[in-house]
């Protein structure tokens, strides 16, 4: 496809290299993207995908190499430069202003003004009208006056997509855009992407969900350890080959064997009802020693609300919780930790990591009370040794343990959170969407940790929206729908059809 700038490529990144202290993040990487095409960028966490895109977007400056946009060499010194040149980006982590409205977030930094002499005043009426028109054109059912903090994570992610599209860019980078979206919202996202591509926009799509890549992409480029491994038309590659190129080994199995002895009841929940009348009601279940209990359901099933209530993050209206046969009161996360529970939350950025703190601090923060000497001072050397040991076991990719966690890829941040709760030595580990935004190699490592935990007599509750993961890793699958427990399936009974049947039981 020829263009008036004399090249079939709207974007070329040629020989890009970038180093940080102790690590070479990009090593002579070349990426070429055609106008009107969806170009998938694949690789394990830490492969360099996000770093490459940050070099494109002006967040990082490459050490060497050239960036060509529409045949012209460009040097973006900031995200503002990139946006003005026609490159927009949806970031992996949400970056909105929580206390401001949807329309204020979409037009942040480029608000329409009313000029009165030398003065400029914000034109709220035009900004609201432009937002309504934009949302309507994208068929988005979102109130432009609603504050961002009041929206669900999926709605906030949808607003990030709207914002990126609003720049009328020639290149749109989407870094894990569907990680917080429902299946219906993801289908709607694909509709938007196809519309953009039909208008000649180049879309760079980063995702760890294989099914999405084969559904939406025209081409795929694979990165590994900071290098570009290859570029293929999507019809010339299959899932097994793609995974092998990403991880450098054959994909012998997606899930490790879970070999554990199921023992006595570790946790029992009886008739648990939320204090919020719109949340879950009358939920009962048991979790046994050595068991992985999966919790499935559609968005709005109240899965997260249930596990957060068990962990003391939300108020319980009625019902009882028993641990090892003894009734317990869990009024706070502190109570839960003391009773041998840990919780990896679904929102890594919002309620998981402490961005400006080191990996050591993020790992140790939930178990500092276990590392005090007789004078109540922290045993820093022991903390450093234990946190390093845990992160090495999970293969967390980082220059040093002193690195701020915000500088790690999303998947490596998730590994630090797993290390955090393993450090508390929990008997019951609750994992809410434990592999969201994580590549296939890192997923296998997380699954292996889960398998090791239950093999050693621990118990795991896993909330997951990924059906293969839910079925592949769970001994039993408990399904919620609209806040009600609709059934529990043994491993032999759990199929995508049987889980969905229970998940939609109360749906109209």
What's the total count of β strands? 22
**Shape estimate:** globular
Looking at the overall shape, the CATH architecture of the largest domain is 3-Layer(aba) Sandwich
Unreliable sequence segments? none
Salient structural properties:
Rossmann fold; six-stranded mixed sheet; 26% strand; 32% helix; 3 domains; globular; alpha/beta; 508 residues
In short:
With 508 residues, the protein is α/β, with parallel strands linked by helices.
Outline the structure in words.
With 508 residues, this protein is an alpha/beta fold. It has three domains: 9-247, 3-Layer(aba) Sandwich (Rossmann fold), CATH 3.40.50; 263-340 and 427-439 and 457-508, Rossmann fold (3-Layer(aba) Sandwich), CATH 3.40.50; 349-425, no CATH class. 32% of the residues lie in helices and 26% in strands. It has 17 helices and 22 strands. Strands 6-9-10-3-11-12 form a six-stranded mixed sheet, with helices on both faces. It has a six-stranded mixed sheet with strand order 18-19-20-15-21-22, sandwiched between helices. A four-stranded antiparallel sheet has the order 2-1-4-5, with helices on one face. Helix 13 (380-393) crosses helix 14 (410-423). The chain is globular and about 70 Å long. The two termini are 47 Å apart.
């Amino acid at each position: 496809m020829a263009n008036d700038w004399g090249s079939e490529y709207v974007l070329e990144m040629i020989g890009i290299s970038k180093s940080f202290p102790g690590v070479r993040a990009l090593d002579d990487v070349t990426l070429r993207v055609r106008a009107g095409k969806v170009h998938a960028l694949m690789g394990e966490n830490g492969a360099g995908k996000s770093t490459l895109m940050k070099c494109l977007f002006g967040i990082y400056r490459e050490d060497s190499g050239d960036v060509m946009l529409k045949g012209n060499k460009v040097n973006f010194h900031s995200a503002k430069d990139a946006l003005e040149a026609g490159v927009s980006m949806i970031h992996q982590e949400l970056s909105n202003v929580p206390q401001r409205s949807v329309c204020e977030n979409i037009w942040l930094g480029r608000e329409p003004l009313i000029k009165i002499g030398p003065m400029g005043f914000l034109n709220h009426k035009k900004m609201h009208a432009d937002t309504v028109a934009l949302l309507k054109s994208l068929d988005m059912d979102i109130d432009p006056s609603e504050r961002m903090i009041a929206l669900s994570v999926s709605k906030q992610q949808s607003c990030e997509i709207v914002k990126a599209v609003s720049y009328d860019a020639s290149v749109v980078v989407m870094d894990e855009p569907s990680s917080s979206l429902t299946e219906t919202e993801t289908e709607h996202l694909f509709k938007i992407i196809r519309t953009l591509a039909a208008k000649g926009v180049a879309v760079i799509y980063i995702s760890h969900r294989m099914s999405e890549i084969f559904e939406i992409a025209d081409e795929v480029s694979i990165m590994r350890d900071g290098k570009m491994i290859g570029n293929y038309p999507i019809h010339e590659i299959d899932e097994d080959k793609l995974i092998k190129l990403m991880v450098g080994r054959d994909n012998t199995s997606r899930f490790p064997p879970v070999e554990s002895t199921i023992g006595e009841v570790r946790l029992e929940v009886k008739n648990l009802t939320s204090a919020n009348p719109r949340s879950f009601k009358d939920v009962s279940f048991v979790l046994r020693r050595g068991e992985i209990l999966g919790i499935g359901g559609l968005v709005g099933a109240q899965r997260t609300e249930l596990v957060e209530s068990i962990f003391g993050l939300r108020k319980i209206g009625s019902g009882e919780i028993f641990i090892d046969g003894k009734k317990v009161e869990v009024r706070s996360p502190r109570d839960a930790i003391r009773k041998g529970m840990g919780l990896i939350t679904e929102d890594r950025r919002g309620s998981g990591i402490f961005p400006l703190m080191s990996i050591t601090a993020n790992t140790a923060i939930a178990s500092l009370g276990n590392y005090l000497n007789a004078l109540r001072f922290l045993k820093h050397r022991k903390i450093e040794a234990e946190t390093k040991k845990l992160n090495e076991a999970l293969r967390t990719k980082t220059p040093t343990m002193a690195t701020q966690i915000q500088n790690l890829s999303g998947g490596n941040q998730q590994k630090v959170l797993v290390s955090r709760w393993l450090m508390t030595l929990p008997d019951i580990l609750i994992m809410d969407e434990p592999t969201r935004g994580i590549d296939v190699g890192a997923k296998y490592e997380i699954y292996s940790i889960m398998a090791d935990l239950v093999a050693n007599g621990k118990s795991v509750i896993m909330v997951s929206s990924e059906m293969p993961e839910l079925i592949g890793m769970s001994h039993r699958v408990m399904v919620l729908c609209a806040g009600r427990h609709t059934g529990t399936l043994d491993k032999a009974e759990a199929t995508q059809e049987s889980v969905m049947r229970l998940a939609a039981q109360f749906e109209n």
